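USER: Please consider what follows.
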Amino acid sequence: MLPVVLVLLLALVLSGAGIALEALWWIALIVLAVRLLGFLVRPAGRGGRSGHCYRW
């Protein structure tokens, strides 16, 4: 009986980790899309510079 319970617990933990990783992938994609939109939409600053916090 104990091995069956341990296998079920392991399956539950691994499925929970899979759901969490999938959610993290979706969050990462949403953050990437927002960053790209912010990079493209941001108005130019003084002197025609893009106004980003980093200098390329």
Summary: The helical segments are 2-41. The mean pLDDT is 80.
